[in-house]
Amino acid sequence: METKVLKLALSEFKLDDGGKTFTGYASTFGNVDSYGDTILKGAYAETLQANGLPKMFFNHNIYEVPMGKWVDAQEDDYGLKLSGEFTPGNTLANEVRAAIKHGTLDGLSIGYRLRKGDFDITETGRTIRKVARLPEVSIVTFPADGKALLDTASVKSSAEGIDEVETIRDLEYFLRDAGGFSKQAAQAVVAKFKKLTEVRDAPPDAKSELLRRLEAMAQ
Predict the structure, then answer these.
(1) Are the beta carbons of 158 and 218 closer than 8 angstroms?
(2) What is the pLDDT of residues 160-170, one digit of tens each?
(3) Which among 119, 153, 187 is the end of a domain?
(4) φ and ψ of 129, to 5 deg
(5) Cβ neighbour number for residue 216 with a 10 Å cutoff
(6) Is 26 within 8 Å of 110 (Cβ atoms)?
(7) Based on the number of CB atoms within 10 Å of its own CB, is 77 exposed (0-12), middle (13-18) or buried (19 or more)?
(8) NCBIfam families, alphabetically (predicted)?
(9) Which of 6, 37, 52, 57 is the most exposed place for a label (fewest CB within 10 A)?
(10) Three-state secondary structure call for residue 101
(11) How confident is the model over 100-148, as pLDDT tens digits?
């Protein structure tokens, strides 16, 4: 699962009702992030209709009890706007709310999945037309506007993407999304692999062995 972080200053994050409820943008449209990716308006419409609202976690910790719930998610011209509520009596929710008020937490991050065909590859990255799944949206500690972070807990669940690796660029994205590599690390691995094995001229058996090893990395 990939993640993208948006600073609260850009997300127009607002606490209401004494801090019990809040609204904000988890994603903006038409901007190029640090991976070179651009998300287009309408990218979330299908998954929200088919799969419902995402879960709410802190720092993508999907093994903890959600600290609240998203009660509404709508796309507008600016981006994906969500409204949420903190769970009453949840200790973490109280701590996060206090940290937001104090200004020590300042990021929102989407956890999402893409399928082949959901995006177009450009010279710098991807133009994302559709997000296949939006399992969760987190409040995070370390925002880096436009920088994708890794949810290592869900790396294994993304291993099915190995079947769609057909090109060098596909391999780079697989390493990033399922293998847990940063953009720079994925590019370095691909470059080294091309140099060592001449992957374009490799026989099918060699390519199959590569894919098996990559799949093992995601387990």
Answers:
(1) yes
(2) 455 666 676 66
(3) 153
(4) -90, -30
(5) 10
(6) yes
(7) exposed
(8) proheadase_HK97
(9) 52
(10) helix
(11) 778 777 778 888 899 989 999 888 789 999 999 999 999 887 653 343 2
